[in-house]
């Protein structure tokens, strides 16, 4: 079964909700608002590709955080598979945070 564009958009919204439930352990802001998610692609078959980064390459959760993201996204209805790519290009910096995240951290 192939998903329609509307269904793909709905799956995308659910994935973003899930991503907003995952927090960087060192910063009290979710990984989506922090700007750690570079790209989410959803195929019409329900295959999801996520490109994400960490705040630093030697982040203490480098092992567990991507797995947590993968597991939570797999639980979204309609998702058949999750391919998660961890990248450090471009490397993350605080300008990638949303206004909301900057506000939360007292940077505005």
From TrEMBL:
It holds the Pfam family FeS_assembly_P. It comes from the Bacteria. Residues 13-83 form the MIP18 family-like domain. PANTHER family: FE-S PROTEIN MATURATION AUXILIARY FACTOR YITW. This is FeS assembly SUF system protein. It comes from Chryseobacterium kwangjuense.
């Amino acid at each position: 079964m192939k998903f329609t564009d509307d269904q793909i958009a709905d799956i995308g919204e659910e994935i973003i909700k899930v991503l907003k439930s995952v927090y960087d352990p060192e910063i009290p802001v979710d990984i989506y608002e922090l700007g750690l998610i570079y790209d989410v692609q959803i195929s019409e078959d329900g295959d999801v590709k996520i490109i994400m980064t960490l705040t630093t390459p030697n982040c203490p959760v480098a092992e567990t955080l991507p797995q947590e993201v993968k597991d939570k996204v797999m639980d979204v209805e309609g998702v058949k598979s999750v391919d998660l790519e961890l990248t450090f290009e471009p490397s993350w910096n605080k300008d990638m945070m949303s206004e909301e995240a900057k506000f939360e951290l007292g940077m505005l």
